[in-house]
Design brief:
By secondary structure, the protein is mainly alpha-helical. Helices cover about 70% and strands about 0% of the residues. Helix 15 packs antiparallel against helix 16. About 5% of the residues have low confidence.
Length: about 350
C-alpha cells in the first residue's frame, strides 16, 4: 500500500505533535516501516530546530516551563537536556525569571564599619550562602555572630533558620527583632500565627502581619492578604479587596496569585471582558508551570458543547498532566476517545501557540 500522500500531508504542516501522534498510532504496523522512518526523521529535525531556538533563550525556570508545556510530548529528550543544563547552573550564574518568580525584595542590610570590624567577612558570606542553599544547621552557626552584631540580613536569616529547624519561639524572637526593617520578617510572623507555631494560633493576628508586609510590597504577603479576604479567615470577607491584593501580588510575579486572580475572575464571570482577563491570568500561571491553572482551563472548555472546545479541554488537561496533575490525566483520557485526531491536533497546536505567546 502506498502511504506517500499521508506522509506528504503530515510533512507539509509545520507542527511536531501530529508527527508524534502518527508514530504512536502506527508504531506496530510493519507495512508502514518506511513512512515511520521518514516521519521519525522529520520529527527529530523539528525537535532539534526547537532545541536550537531554546538554546538562545535565558536559562531560567520560566523558559523550562514554556519548553515543557509546548514540546514535552514530542521532544522529551531535548526538554530534559534543557532541564539538566538549568539544574547544573551555579546559583551565582542563574538568571532571575521575569514572569514566574516573585522578586526577591532586598532586605536592608546593616554593614557599617563597626559591624564589619567585629565580624569575620567570610563568616558573613557563609551566613548568607548557607541560608540561601538551605543548609540551616551550619548557617545557624555562621549567622549568630553577625546577627548579634546588628546585621539585619543575618538577623532575618536567624528567624528563617530557626523556623526551618522547628525552633519556633526563637524564630519569632528574631523575626520581631528585625521586622521594622524587613517585610519578609513580618510575613514570617504571620506564618507562625497562622499555623500556631511557637504562639497560640490566631488568624486575626496572622492577617495583621500579612497585611503589614503586603503594604511594603512583599508578594507572598500580598497573596496571603488576598487569600484572607477571599476566605474570610482572620478578616471580614471582601471579594473586591481579595481581587485587589491578588492583582498586586500577580503583578509582582507571584504565580499562585496569578492562578487565584484568574480563577476568581472566571468564577465571578461578571462580563465577557473580565472572563477573558481571568483566562489570561490562568494562562500566565500555566506558563509558570502551575498545573491547577491548566486543569481549570481544561474545565472551562470541557463545559462547552462543541467538539472543538472539547478538544481544547483535552489539550489543556494534557498540559496539566505534564505539570503533575493526576486528575487532569483521568479527565483527558475520558474525553480523548470521542474526538477526531485532526480536531485534537488542531487544538493542541493552537494552545501551544498561545503558550508561546504567538496568539
Amino acid at each position: 500500500m502506498n502511504y506517500d500522500d499521508e506522509v506528504e500531508a503530515l510533512l507539509a504542516q509545520p507542527y511536531i505533535d501530529p508527527l508524534t501522534d502518527y508514530i504512536n498510532q502506527h508504531n506496530d504496523d510493519e507495512d508502514r516501516a518506511e513512512p515511520l522512518r521518514q516521519i521519525s526523521a522529520a520529527r527529530k529535525i523539528r525537535c532539534q530546530e526547537i532545541a536550537d531556538k531554546y538554546a538562545t533563550r535565558p536559562l531560567t525556570q520560566e523558559s523550562l516551563n514554556r519548553y515543557q508545556a509546548g514540546y514535552n510530548y514530542s521532544c522529551p529528550k531535548q526538554v530534559e537536556a534543557f532541564a539538566l543544563r538549568l539544574a547544573n547552573v551555579k546559583p551565582s550564574e542563574k538568571i532571575a525569571d521575569s514572569d514566574t518568580e516573585s522578586p526577591s525584595l532586598p532586605e536592608k542590610t546593616v554593614l557599617d564599619e563597626a559591624i564589619v570590624s567585629n565580624v569575620n567577612k567570610q563568616q558573613l558570606n557563609d551566613c548568607y550562602l548557607l541560608t540561601t542553599i538551605s543548609n540551616f544547621r551550619e548557617a545557624k552557626t555562621a549567622c549568630l555572630l553577625p546577627a548579634n552584631r546588628g546585621d539585619v540580613r543575618s538577623q532575618l536569616n536567624m528567624a528563617i533558620i530557626h523556623k526551618a529547624l522547628a525552633n519556633y519561639s526563637q524564630s519569632l524572637t528574631w523575626a520581631k527583632k528585625v521586622e521594622p526593617e524587613s517585610p519578609r520578617a513580618r510575613y514570617l510572623i504571620g506564618e507562625l500565627y497562622a499555623s500556631g507555631l511557637g504562639v497560640k494560633q490566631d488568624a486575626q493576628m496572622a492577617f495583621h502581619w500579612f497585611e503589614k508586609a503586603a503594604e511594603d510590597d512583599y508578594a507572598d504577603a500580598q497573596y496571603m492578604t488576598a487569600w484572607s479576604y477571599e476566605t474570610g479567615i482572620g478578616v471580614e470577607q471582601n471579594i473586591d479587596k481579595a481581587l485587589f491584593w491578588y492583582q498586586r501580588a500577580a503583578l509582582n510575579n507571584n504565580t499562585p496569585a496569578k492562578h487565584s486572580l484568574g480563577a476568581l475572575m472566571v468564577q465571578q464571570n461578571k462580563n465577557p471582558s473580565s472572563f477573558i482577563k481571568g483566562q489570561n491570568w490562568l494562562i500566565e500561571a500555566v506558563r509558570a508551570g502551575y498545573a491547577e491553572s491548566a486543569l481549570m482551563m481544561g474545565q472551562i472548555f470541557q463545559g462547552n458543547s462543541s467538539i472543538e472546545d472539547k478538544a481544547k479541554a483535552v489539550a489543556w488537561f494534557e498540559i496539566a498532566q505534564q505539570q503533575g496533575s493526576a486528575e487532569a490525566a483521568e479527565l483527558a483520557q475520558k474525553l480523548r476517545n470521542g474526538i477526531n485526531p485532526d480536531t485534537l491536533n488542531s487544538a493542541r497546536q493552537q494552545i501551544h501557540r498561545t503558550l508561546e505567546g504567538q496568539e
